[in-house]
Amino acid sequence: DSLNRAFTNHGSSSLEFTPKELSEWRAFRSLIGEGTSLDEVSSVWRQHAKFQDVQLGAMIKQFLVDYERTRPESTQGLAHLKPVMLWLETFFGSDKSVSALTLNDARNLFSNLPIGINATYSKIAYHKKVRQFFKYLENKEIIPKNRFALIEIPALTKADKEPKPVLTIEE
Q: Which of 40, 49, 80, 169 matches a 20 to 30 Å C-alpha distance to 120?
């Protein structure tokens, strides 16, 4: 009602959205039901618009900057994090939208670990670092849900848990 009054009194310049957006809102409202309040539609619309077109490469750069800023003493952690982020960016491409990544993308990523990552401990580390990045995006409300957290982390085998033999000086 207030939008109708504003339109009647001041014309379309008083509205906060374009005529195209208004027609999209009407179509959206017809899908969710005419009885739904405009406030609810507006809230859903804002949520929908929030998770679009944020590129992976830009978010990785921001994540690394924030990581370094919040943990300045963790130079070793940053050194271990950078190769994982480079692998992630190379795998999907830096211009990929982070909100467009699906559960199947997550499965494909973890089934194609870099060559040389064979030890279970290394696989676990890669999983944790990728999850950490997507948890960061979820906390920043850049993605709605961390789909990468749904992928099961590899379990340590019995051989991984056994103590490693210690060599003597003669050996």
A: 169
